[in-house]
Design brief:
Layout (H helix, E strand, L loop, with lengths): L8 H13 L6 H9 L5 H45 L8 E5 L13 E2 L1 H14 L4 E9 L5 E9 L8 E6 L6 E5 H7 L3 E7 L2 E7 L4 E4 L5 E4 L2
Parallel strand pairs: 2-7, 3-6
Antiparallel strand pairs: 1-5, 3-4, 4-10, 5-6, 7-8, 9-10
């Protein structure tokens, strides 16, 4: 690879300016002054070099000033590109609390997520029943093959208790809502409400429960960490 192919355009321009500055006709004044000086006189040689040096330096300064400006611009663009590449974006939550937010023992808000499939399915049910106040209630009770089991049912917002229940709404604009009481939310915080279509049937399902250590094959019962 040749030198003219290396680096950004302003580096190529800098190399070309230096080559033009160092051509024989550009340095002719220096050569004539140097050749006319006595070869045995050290003082005259020093005087010629002193008078010729500012000429070369002025050419270098005229070349470097725009290069430094381009270099700063290139460096700034490079830093901006890195900042955009490594910038961290906070993911948008899939659900927000609209009624009775709750805090756990560590002072963290207890939240769940509603997947796109679950929100879409709830929206379809609301549209089919012409009931925009419809919501999915999720409860946890003791029982099942693993100690605890999920119970899900459809309910109306009019049956929600502002003191006992917490209501989550999907953030995708579907209007899908999920209702949980406090004991159930303590066991399901950090999990997702999903909708699955399998050979055994279609159903709403809890996935990614941080409190569950194991679950049954159908996903309706689970063990918890003690």
């Amino acid at each position: 690879m040749t030198s003219t192919q290396i680096g950004p355009p302003f580096l190529q321009l800098m190399r070309q300016e230096f080559r033009n500055a160092l051509r024989p006709n550009a340095c002719m004044r220096f050569r004539r002054s140097y050749s006319s000086a006595p070869s045995t006189s050290r003082d005259s040689r020093t005087r010629v070099e002193a008078t010729s040096t500012p000429i070369i330096r002025s050419q270098v300064l005229r070349t470097c000033l725009p290069v430094s400006a381009h270099r700063c611009s290139y460096r700034q663009l490079h830093q901006d590109s890195l900042s955009r590449h490594f910038a961290t974006t906070v993911p948008k939550p899939a659900a927000v609390v609209i009624v009775n937010p709750r805090i756990d023992e560590d002072g963290n808000e207890m939240l769940i997520d509603i997947t796109e499939r679950a929100a879409t399915r709830l929206r379809e049910i609301m549209t089919k029943d012409s009931n925009p106040s419809l919501a999915l209630r999720v409860m946890v009770e003791s029982g099942g093959c693993h100690g605890f089991q999920y119970l899900m049912s459809l309910t109306n917002m009019s049956a929600v208790s502002p003191q006992d229940d917490t209501v989550f709404e999907a953030t995708n604009g579907s209007g899908a809502k999920v209702v949980m009481d406090e004991p159930s939310l303590e066991l399901l915080k950090g999990s997702k409400v999903d909708f699955t279509m399998e050979l055994i049937g279609s159903q709403f399902k809890i996935v990614g429960n941080p409190a569950a250590t194991s679950s049954c094959g159908c996903g309706t019962s689970f063990d918890i960490k003690l």
